[in-house]
Each structure stands twice: as C-alpha cells, then as structure tokens.
Specification:
With 117 residues, this protein is mainly alpha-helical. It has three helices and two strands.
C-alpha cells in the first residue's frame, strides 16, 4: 500500500512560532503588569509600610493610654490625674482658674491658676 507524504507549508511553522511568542508575551506582561506582578508587589510593599507605621503609632498611643489607666488604679492613684479627669468629665473648674482645651482627645483639660501662672 502506497503512502502519501504531504509537503509541509512554511507558514505552518511561522504560525506555531507566532502562537508560542504570543503566549510567552502574555505571561511576560502578566509577570510585570498583572495583578500579582512586579508593579502590584511594589504597591503592596508601600501599603504594608503605611500599615506598619500606623500600627507603630497605635502601639505608642496604646502605651500612653495604658500608662494613664495605670495611674488611675487604686494602688497607684495619681491625685493630679484624678483631678484632671474629674474636671474634664464634669466640665468644672475653680472660679480663679483659666481652662484651656487642646489636643485631639475631647475632655483633656489643662488648667492654669489665674494668680500668676
């Protein structure tokens, strides 16, 4: 039985190479610009740095608040802090005092006596 051999077209080889180059180009683009590529990793690194800075600031704020709470406990009661918090919560001051509100936290009061301070 005779066998027929077909002559391959040179275009078939070029089509196969073009398809493989297109696939390689797609993966190269995804590796640099895609959702998990190098550009996305740079954005994630920036966001991580911002979040770590925010976390450090929150830890510092927490330490300040824990120190204030510790000074309000009965075994280490700070009379000045207790007086400050009572005045802030009750919105009261002595008649000869000047009250200055400042800071981000509402209710923090620093009072200066009117007689020379």
């Amino acid at each position: 039985m005779p066998t027929r051999h077909r002559k391959r077209s040179p275009l078939a080889f070029l089509v196969a190479v073009a398809i493989l180059l297109a696939i390689a180009g797609y993966f190269a683009w995804q590796g640099t610009q895609g959702g998990y590529g190098a550009a996305a990793r740079a954005l994630l690194a920036e966001e991580r740095a911002r979040k770590e800075a925010e976390h450090a600031a929150l830890l510092e704020r927490r330490a300040v608040l824990e120190a204030r709470v510790e000074r309000l406990r009965t075994h280490a009661l700070d009379a000045d802090l207790l007086d400050e918090r009572a005045r802030a919560k009750l919105n009261m001051a002595h008649p000869n005092e000047l009250v200055i509100f400042h800071g981000e936290e509402p209710g923090i009061v620093h009072s200066l006596a009117a007689h020379g301070r």
